[in-house]
Amino acid sequence: MSNLSRRKLLLASAALSLTLAAPFAGRAAVAAEPPARPNIVVFLADDISYNDVSISGDRNVRTPALDRLASQGMTFDRAFVASPTCAPSRAALLTGMMPARNGAEANHDRTSAVVRKLPSFLQEQGYQVVAFGKVAHYQHTGTYGFDYYANDTFHDHKGIAAAAEWLKARKDKRPLALFVGSNWPHVPWPRTTEGYAPDAITLPPKTVDTPETREARARFYAAVTRMDQDLATTMDAVDSILGPETFVLYSADHGTQWPFGKWNLYDTGTRVPMVVRWNGRVQAGTRTNAMVSWVDILPTLVQLAGGRQPEGIDGVSFSSLFGVGSGPAGRPEIYTTHNNDGRINTYPMRSIRTERWKYIQNLLPDTLHTTHIDLKVARTDSGVYFPSWREAAERDPAAKAIVDAYYKRPAEELYDLQADPDEQVNLAADPRHAKQLKELRTRLDRWRKAQGDTGRIPVQPRVERGPMQGEDD
Questions:
Q1: Structural domain containing residue 316
Q2: Is this prediction's pTM over 0.85?
Q3: Does the structure show a pLDDT above 60 at 6?
Q4: Rounded-to-integer distance, Cα 111 and Cα 91, Å
């Protein structure tokens, strides 16, 4: 592609993004003029769905630090990632561009070297930009242009304490943009349930209830509480050193590593918790229904730092929610994509979500949806229970329906989120919704064309289920 053609594509995509980002009511700012270049802290959790934290209604889990942060700021009830996989999701945040355009479509992919990254935009506004822990994907952080970074290897929990110690020793007078990434609750989960009682847990929808499932779910909640402890450590340092007027954004890179969560375009895979605290700017204890995407975080931070909405990206700032600028405060629709993670999660799919509807295109419906959870060769803590699901499916029709829905997907899925928020009743074949199906299909196809999204993957998909426990791979 020539430089001229590439520039035209960038401009077309930017225009499409701005056209789709219609204004959304729900501002909760409490002042008229922004302070000059606030310190910025972004805290990222690893693998946790919107529904799996207490601020979204999960009564199983203990997250006092997140609860406290939400009580001090604004909770986003409709925040979404660009892709339900670590590397593509984080690349989208750090470039403001969707996977097909930034180069990181498969997990472990790196962004294109020619794409401008978030640190550069903030440095242009005079910021020192620093990262501790899992901010980009593992050992990708050095490619993003941070002034300093550390502890970006797998489950390197020293990064949280290191960030606090670095803050204490910092002498730089520039405004600071600090990114801190916890490795929790990414697997491996703690070996014990750490005070969570498996029998007392309420399991999420589309779950097969077995003793193995309950034990695993309790260990997952233990990992969530460890994430919350990382948040508490970070916020204690931020408040004591940078001060409570710091702009703080908390979120997670995609859904929980659970069937129908991570690696899926259902809301359990792409809808994530997000909280913003900015004392004096955001009213404490508020919530917003504005739909925002992780690609929108980059332009939001740039505007808060005193810059302009960057051109040629997919993200659109939602800073007007905080009284900064006059642009849109949310989107009318959210686009999400998934390709593959080597041959483990090889199931390309695309989605468009509006306030009421979710439409999913499964690009290879004749293959199987498989992940680290069910394939023995990749099975970690999140899949130790899955053999019990398959065993239950041999005798229980309800369990069989869940397992079959995990493995086999139709070419198209359509869900009425108003009537079916758990996305359990596919309406794609219902003639009463043919017009809605066609409209969303057309919009998604148009968006994919503007993105230059071919849907091609470089690996062979799977057509057979993985072995059961005790069988050979």
A1: 3-21+37-331
A2: yes
A3: no
A4: 6
